Amino acid sequence: CRLRQCVLLQACFLWTSFCLALWTLNGGIRIKQFQPPKPKPDPRNNNSSILSASDMGISDEEWDRLQKALDWPIPDQITHLNQSTSPVHSTFTAVGLKESYKVGENISVTITARDHNKNLKRYGGDFFKAKLFNSELKASVNGEVVDHRNGTYSVVFLLPWEGQAQVFVRLEHSSEVVQIIKKYRESSFPRVHFKGYFESGPSKTRIREAVECNLKWGEDGSWKKGNCCCEYKDKRTGTVWQCERPKTLSCDKLVHHSSTHLESPLNLFEQQFFAKKLTNVAISGDKKIINVLPNAAAIGTVEKCRSGLTTPVPAGFYLKDVWKSFVCSTQQFSAAQTGNCLKNKIVYLMGDSTTRQWFEYFERKVPGIKRMNLHNDPKCGPLMAVELKNNIIIHWRPHGVPLRFGRVMPITDLHYISNDIDEIAGGPHAVIVFTYCVHLTFHPITFYVFQVAKIRQSVVALLSRAPDTTVIIKSGNTAGLKDIFLSDWHTLQLDIVMREMFRDIDGVIFLDVWQMTSCHYLFENIHPGPVIIANEIDMFLSYVCPN
């Protein structure tokens, strides 16, 4: 017995010594090594990059160009949370700040990224946002963050208003988080789930079944395997929607659609990087007040709003809650001016709830306009409003699946944007506005390219048969959530794709609301407040009825 006790004590001593040595090597901190997430419930890591350019409906040259535009530096695989960028230890500094400036001059800011051990980062890829602001003047302007890929970043701010200004910088995501987001963007792991509702029979004895549905995309072709599912292929776009096969009803009985729940693919190690204290946090830096004096030389532009104009950074700025555009000469429209501008126009608003906000704004703003009762859910649409005196018609319709509306809605009401554009004759009376962004952040970017290619094809055909048609692309909004499901990094990447794929298409207007939603003092929300919507509409009307 004594011999056994001796052996056991010696074994315990050796094991304790081994554990202490490991603890010391790891800096006294328990570190969970980076491990790929365990699939839920089956492997779904087919990378969308295995698709060819022709699968997406574009040329190899265009796909190469898109990949270069989307390029974002990411770190090597990391093993410690404390290696990631820390919003507490990262700082910004105004370079060579003077006592005063004049309107139209610039200031430079340097951002230095550090990890949680206060070490300088040696690589880039962090997602910073920067703006200049004055709360009293309700003034703000975006600054473009330039990544030098060595842990430092620079921002050049234009000083567009007279008075005082301060710099504000925040770390939305570390480069390590971007790495994780990018990995899952290219995965077929279903972060969002949908339901399809099948129905058949008379009202009193009607049979109903609800099953899971989702997008079919990628080399493997589906998120379900085998002969499990009903497939619905759109004849014109080629998009395939897939639903589990109902137990009793046939595949042609699909009637309604809704989204259900979100599913996080993050393992425990990855979840640490998305902690609230590390996400979308202001970093410390130079808080000096910048004094801006008037300047006899005017800034801005007198260019009429039209297609073909480039969007600079900054694209404009807020002053007293009014957006002053640097793209073209804009104005504020009164209710009467709004009605007069839209006289004899048919406005087609397409996309998601952010264009529905425009529809609701027009309802309030255009004198005498009335919404027609189309006997549907006002949040799901389609919607239609008419003003008879000035012959104004405004439509709104959400885009086709995948669409993450929580309400149950008829599947027949969900049209792909390209198909709807194909059905519009066009002409000087027709104004088309579409946005196609936020609901696509849950799916591979290759699928987004495929869909945008179809929309572009339809827009080109429309402008060929009716070149006087006004076509406006509304960019994506910045969002309040900053997580694996809805990150502004996702949205920015989709925004880049849309810009790149339409940059050479004559007659198309790109309305940048990203900067308008990003730099405003209101808390970022996928559904911006009324003051932002009013400025977006004034931009829109300035293109429809230029000065």
TrEMBL record:
Q: Has keyword Signal?
A: yes
- Which residues span the membrane? none
| UniProt entry keywords in alphabetical sequence | Signal
Q: Using the record, list the residue span of the signal peptide; answer none if the entry has no such feature.
A: 1-21
- Keyword Signal recorded: yes
InterPro entries, per database record: Ig-like_fold, Ig_E-set, NXPE4_C, NXPH/NXPE
Question: What name goes with this protein?
Answer: NXPE C-terminal domain-containing protein
Q: Which organism is it from?
A: Cirrhinus molitorella (mud carp)
